[in-house]
Write a structure and sequence with these properties.
Layout: H1 3-15, E1 21-24, E2 31-35, H2 40-52, E3 53-54, E4 56-60, H3 66-77, E5 81-85, E6 88-92, E7 106-107, H4 112-122, E8 128-132, H5 143-151, E9 155-161, E10 164-172, E11 176-177, E12 180-183, H6 188-198, E13 201-202, E14 205-209, H7 216-223, E15 228-230, E16 234-237, E17 243-244, E18 248-250, H8 255-267, E19 272-279, H9 286-293, E20 297-302, E21 314-320, E22 328-329, H10 341-350, E23 352-358, H11 370-380, E24 384-390, E25 393-401, E26 408-409, H12 415-427, E27 431-434, H13 447-452
Parallel strand pairs: 2-19, 3-17, 4-18, 7-8, 11-13, 12-14, 22-23, 26-27
Antiparallel strand pairs: 1-27, 4-6, 5-6, 8-10, 9-10, 14-16, 15-16, 19-21, 20-21, 23-25, 24-25
Helix pairs in contact: 2-3, 2-4, 2-7, 3-4, 4-6, 5-6, 8-10, 8-12, 10-11, 10-12
The protein binds shikimate-3-phosphate.
Shikimate-3-phosphate binds next to helix 6.
Length: about 450
Amino acid sequence: MSCIRKSIHRLETKFSHPSKLFLIKHKFIPNGRIKLGGDKSIAHRALILSALSSGKTMLNNFPIHDDALATLNALSALGVKIRHKGKVVFVKGCGRQGLKIPPQPIFVNNSGTTLRLLLGVLAGMNFKTKVVAGKYLSLRPMSRVNVPLRLMGARITASIKGNEEYAPIVISGGNLKGIVYHAKIASAQVKSAILLAGLFAKGKTQVFQRFSTRDHTERMLKLFGANIVLNNNSITLNPNQDLVSPGKIYIPGDISSAAFFIVLASIIPKAKIIIEHSGLNPGRCGIINVLKRMRAKIKVVVFKADKSVNFEPRGDLTINSSKLKGTVVLPSEIPSLIDELPILMVAACFAQGCTTIKGIGELRVKETDRINSMVVNLRKMGAAIRVIKVGGQENIVIKGQGRLCGSELRSFGDHRTAMSMVVAALAADGESSLDDISCVSKSFPGFLKTLKSLKRR
Ligand code: S3P
């Protein structure tokens, strides 16, 4: 058995035993063509708006992972009829007023997008719902959505520690009024919760943002016929919108999952990976833009827009190995690659020269504190990585050395830390181990299988 086959074999065997995952780097030159599961952010929105619309919706390329299933199960608990057959999901919409009182508290597992977007919907219901979260999500801040939803008229109680609110949350609503909200945090989840509540409000709802964030909710609302007006830095939703199903939605591949393979191909000499049908929403393409600035060889072929695909741009990516150079990432770019910052840190370690990523404080409140998880792991691998506080802002500075060394790595229970460290370990000199990889089921259960498919034949 070749070394890489041996290493991938071990990857696989250990995956079914979520104790310890061993990785060995030995001339793994990823080469091949992959197609990834549907975009997680789009899947949540497609389910929610399908449920609130009139008519039936068929969702194609639906990703079967813990987070998407959390939204699916939450909507089922609210009485929405949903069937899924592999990657195809059928939703029978019940209209804006058709949700039922759930028989018991809704459990959203560790899906932050499920919880925050669902609160926007539940704010419009004139019944009381308790929402309970898993152990990681229960540690994530919720005031950011509770505050604007209360301004709209929702009644919310949450668990309080210090100045912050956390799940479990009890919410009852109905009789909402539209608000004009100037969001302090650049968050698509907050914006989306407000817009979804706006569907049930009297008067228009307007959200202003300092930096633009992914606009999947806005695009999906338009697709379902809502009256939504977009300006440079504001979104206005006009009231009392009945949503009409477009019938079929094709969910493009998840660019956040693609990011691990874009970096893998970029940092391993002689590698080449083609990623088919990736979502290319401009609010998500930060990883491509920044890596290209670092001289990554990424060719993007955008599909010609037609009716069925025009709600979200998509295309194919071809990535060839390259010699990366350091760069500076500005705070205004952060929302467009917020989930890709861990894997960008890995890329920066393999670059020549310094990479500075500015304004990354939001990483502290993701599934884990991703500044901590990445600094701890990358330092163990020999990276020169520092966190610098400038005023109220946190920056990361990485002095790229073109290499990392194998080590004993930890996932911290976080899917994106885990996958970033697998990529780092495959490109590093020597052997690495990772304590637990079962957390990838949150967004990408097929990660190791996809990796294995790239072994050179
Ligand atoms: C998401 C928005 C981002 C992102 C998360 C998914 C979404 O969170 O980190 O994984 O689907 O709206 P924030 O909006 O809190 O930055």
